[in-house]
Amino acid sequence: MKRLLVFLLLAVITVLAVPSEAYARLPYVTTYFDKNQGTWTRIQDFYKPVNAFNDGFDEPVDIQIDASDKVYVVDKGSDSVFVLDDDGKLITTIYAKDGPGSLDAPEGVFVASDGKIYVADTGNGRIAVFKSDGTFLQAYAKPDSPLLASDPFIPTKLVVDRRGVMYVNMKASYQGLIRINPKGQFMGYFGANKAHQSFMNWIKKLVLNKEQLKKETPSLPKPIANVSIDADGFIYTTSGGDFGKAAIRKLNAGGVDAFNGREFQHSHGIVDVAIDGNGFMYNIDQDFGGINVFDRNGDVLFDFGMTNVNTQQFGVFGFPTSIAIDSKNNIWVADSGTSTVHKFRRTDFGNDVMQALVMYADGRYEDSKPYWDRVFERNEMFTGTYQGLGQVYLEEGDNAKALDYMKESFDTKGYSEAFWEIRLDWLQHHFLALLIGIVIIAVILTYLPRTVRRLLKRKPLPKSFDRPLADIRNFFYTMFHPYEGFYQMKEARVAPWIIIILLVAVVAMKVIATYYTGFLFHPVDLSELDLYKDLGLFVAPWVTWVIANYLVCSVKDGEGKFREVIQGSTYALAPYLAFSIPILILSNILSLNESVLIHSLSSVMMLWMLSMFFVMTQVIHNFEFVQTIKNSLITVFAISIIWLFGFIIFGLSTNLYDFFYQLYKEVSMYR
Length: 671
Prior knowledge:
With 671 residues, the protein is α+β, with helices and mostly antiparallel strands. Among the domains are: 58-195 and 220-294, TolB, C-terminal domain (Neuraminidase, 6 Propeller); 471-659, no CATH class. Helix content is 44%, strand content 19%. A 6-stranded antiparallel β-sheet has the order 2-1-22-21-20-19, with no helix packed on it. A hairpin with a 4-residue loop joins strand 1 (30-34) and strand 2 (39-43). Helix 13 (562-571) packs antiparallel against helix 15. It is elongated.
């Protein structure tokens, strides 16, 4: 018995001594933005943390990397600039306790092409310049200019162009960057953000007089948070707020923004941006808590990283303050929250993706193929691969394969190009057959009705068919003669089953259009389509129109009965049936270049239907023209009220259901 107990005890100790399962997973996820579908999708790691350096940092607030990959870190807490090599080893520290080279709470650094180190010496209100070996060279104080007389000189960030002109950002300044030439002279403001004019401000300008406007708080532009410069000399400013609108501005020498104030995703809390040698941008955003990669046009590609103010975890930021990228595409992030500098290295997958994207952007599609193939081997769900390979096959003339890949990536522009080539080839080989087919169809459409009429004369249908057939003929007759058609319908009682058949035909046409409209004009994944939701959104407006129109017009002394409103509203749908068939056919044979034809037909169809509903209201309720306009507008308002109440009731019902469901689960748990 004792041996058995000892054996069991040893077994338990052995089991407990076995280390728990370990994961090599990073603390954050990497996602890719599919621009064609507007969705974020998780993918494998794009960048991985390789080290976190803390060589006596206290509060690192800015980071710069020179052409030789030396890393310059401004430490506000220790009044120093640390210089690291590309492995993160400390080379030297620029620090002086006193004297002209002494810094006070510096917040920005920039290394010029001649090796000079410019430091935004914030506490001393100057720009200090050092030689490459850290020896103090000179300082720039506030320029002597009447335009700066009332403004404090508190530099926080700066860059220097090839001419030695400094672009300096001032603390909490909304006037833009200050330009200072190498002689220390003021050259003017540069790149100020535009003031946001809200709708209320516009109303105030219309209503208030000059005296009242003076008492209003002025709408000032956003202050610039940081400034960067790329190899071509473009100045990049970053500004947080406004949900990423104009978060990054790419300014030429004249101060014109190449991005034209566009909105950047994950950039509401942006603090800095770095630009690599290929013109791709990397921002660090404190609200999102990570790094975002953008292409040259400002379209977001990837995001990764994570922020936790209490973190002690490798690769997680505490309070990121600046970002830089070296010539090997390693990303460096200054983190004042953890007093460290993080270094991230691009993975093999990331290198292949970025290399393929660069070649794709440069139009070198054939050269990009091996990179896309390697990306495809690692991740066949990455839709960018299909878009890239689709363009490659398009260049190679393999249009059928290009068509499949473009469809897989939901790239309608590329799909249209491949489709156009395939259609041209088909027409060149089947033009005669197509011509014969068109003639045959024209002959059938011409003589088929005559043949049917002759047959009906010889063998007429029973009398019981006359009325239903007349009602169906009146359905399309009303489309071209709405006043006469609706008057005839008002005098006659259309059988309910005829109305039901017509409504079923309209709904069936909607279902057919949903599934068989050409991909170019309906680029969706049909397997994920929610047909019931689509039909609900299609039918609900018609139903609410019928209810609202009857209620409103009844109150306004309209003569129409509820049955007549249903009949008229059904006949008003005739243009939808008549136009949907040619639109459906054209959507499968036209490319995007000819899309104006489909858009024109769709617009005519909508206008025609609206006119039909208007005439129906006028005739059924016996209104005058102006009276019909008023009541139609009131009907639209009533529809919006019905929908509002519908949403409220739905929301309350959902909460009530959730309450009872949770109550049931709790009761079930303690039974």
